[in-house]
Inverse folding.
């Protein structure tokens, strides 16, 4: 999932070198944290959070076969 979130984020932002994605596995879930440059935050979140919701929907669909729940968190 880390690679998928990183690919999507790099495609959206103007500073792809500043995209940092970390993946942490816990018991029954996977936490994917996304950090981008301050100027690119709006591009990743989108109006009323539409882009962020779309990223989460794509990740959820990609992880449908997995037993673990994937949580995507966008950091400030």
């Amino acid at each position: 999932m880390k690679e998928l979130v990183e690919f999507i984020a790099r495609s959206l932002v103007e500073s792809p070198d500043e995209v940092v994605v970390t993946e942490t596995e816990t018991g029954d879930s996977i936490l994917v944290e996304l950090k981008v440059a301050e100027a690119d935050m709006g591009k990743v979140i989108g109006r009323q959070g539409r882009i962020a919701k779309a990223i989460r929907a794509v990740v959820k669909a990609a992880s449908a076969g997995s037993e673990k729940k994937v949580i995507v968190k966008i950091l400030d």
Summary: The CA atoms of residues 11 and 70 lie 21 Å apart. The mean pLDDT is 94. The chain has one domain: 2-75.
